[in-house]
Amino acid sequence: MSKGADIDNARPRAIAALAVHFRDLDIAEDAFADAASAYLEKGISADNPAAWLITAGKRKGLDAMRKRNAEERAADGLALVRDMTEIITFPEPIQDERLRLIFICCHPAIALEARVALALKVICGLPVAEIARVFVTSEQTMYQRITRAKTKVRDAGIAFELPARKEWGERLDAVLLTLELAYTVAYQDAAGERDDGLSAEVARLAAMLAELLPDEAEALGLAALVGLARARENARVDGDGAMVPVSQQDTTKWNIAAIEQAGNWLDQAAQKRAPGPYQVMATIQLTHARRAFDGQVDALAIAQLYDALVALRPGPMVALNRAVAIGTAYGAQRGFAELELIEQDASIVEKLEHARPYHVARGDLLAKLDRKAEAAEALERALKLDPPSAERLFLQSKRDALLG
Amino acid sequence: MQFTLLINENESVYEGEGGAKLMEEVVGKHMALIEEMQAANAYVGGHRLLGAATATTIKYKAGEGTLHDGPFAETHEELGGYYVIEAANLDEAIGWARKIPVPGDGGIEIRPVWQNEE
Questions:
Q1: Is the preceding omega at residue B71 within 30 degrees of 0, hence cis?
Q2: Does B94 sit within 8 Å of A109, measured CB to CB?
Q3: How confident is the model at residue A61 (pLDDT cuts 50, 70, 90)?
Q4: Where residue B79 sits, what CATH number does that domain have?
Q5: What residue segments make up the domains of chain A, in order of their start?
Q6: pLDDT tens for each residue of A342-396
Q7: How far apart are the C-alpha atoms of A134 and A137, rounded to whole Å?
Q8: CA separation (Å) from B15 to A151, A226, B6, B104, B108?
Q9: A6-38, pLDDT tens digit by residue?
Q10: Chain A contacts to B (CB-CB under 8 A)
Q11: Do residues B78 and B71 lie in contact, with contact meaning Cβ atoms separated by under 8 Å?
């Protein structure tokens, strides 16, 4: 493996160990960067790059702190001794501190968006410029947001210890929600115009969480959901750059190993007997993915899964997707009737008016009912809501087919 | 480390019919909470404040202060009291804050206390 890959792979563990050691995310990041450049200058690769980088990082961080705080030399002396023993006793199994770091970066006391940014920056090492692009903001604004989040971690008393298992509830929810937003952001653009870096990192993060929390059914469910989206990435856009909906994707472009991995995660999750929305969402996607194996999609099963999802996580978007699923399973007539039920609530319609999926779903059902002019009008409305280019191309060709 | 828990509440729930009874219940819960905090060596201090109608504020503009009748922020929720507690970390502080009774609308702001380096 190349030294660069060594560093990338070791990053989450090494940063986590350094953050816990120094109890400061900034010092940990700087120390890791220094250790990484030392590693690149080193003659040969280390047997255990993570251990090497952690040990070197501890020394680098200490040097930096010493420079920063000349009057604290006496205290440093003690730390140095501690540090030396660690070098002497090396190599020994290093504790895996990644979960602690994830819980720190995803603490519910930090605003959700800032949590995502912090996790992407600190755990994944994504450059601030890229995170800024993902959140459609300036690099400077994003830099400030991350700095503020780090300051809060340092000063607000956010624990560097892992909370007791029985207190995980709210903390774990915050972790999952952070990852869900990262996932949503990574896949909001069908064509992946924002480049592959983000979705790869989100998939890595989700897999890491499933590995670290093998007993949490929803963590496994979320990993499966993210994994399935990633498995279909290469099939999401056709040769002209237009979006391809999942039902029409070329299954030979799907990553079968990734789909199987997601299936395993869901099996593992099912054994915990703790159903939740992520597991249901992932199961819906897995049902779509079955087409790669036997060419079939069980539309009835998908409609039933949406019933479950509406119960677990009610909301206009889920209700909308359920209406579409019912349309596929039982015919457009029934799907459209479901849509009209949703539309009876004026406050929901007000929200949906600004959501592309609403107009697309409406257009889809109307087209199936052969109400072509209305269908084209619905798609026109979706097009006015500024879709990313792959989706725009897809919607345009759909609309043109209706008008033609 | 020490945290201050600032209790901001809509006072109107304690007005009108049943208000006095509700207040009695809430005060009882505060007393029980204080005992619990003391037993856990978490209680440092705290006070219940008189209503926002009794507040006087010196408002500053470019360092120049003038007196105002009323609380600092004109919102529906007013600072009604505070605790100062000792807690190992934010999660522990949040745990105590969640035990503060707020029967109506409001919020508990959790703020770490500035710690002087010795």
A1: no
A2: yes
A3: very high
A4: 3.30.70.1060
A5: 3-96, 97-156+166-213
A6: 999 999 999 899 999 999 999 999 999 999 999 999 999 999 998 888 999 999 9
A7: 8
A8: 41, 51, 21, 12, 21
A9: 999 999 999 999 999 999 999 999 999 999 999
A10: 107, 109, 155-159, 161, 163, 167, 171
A11: yes
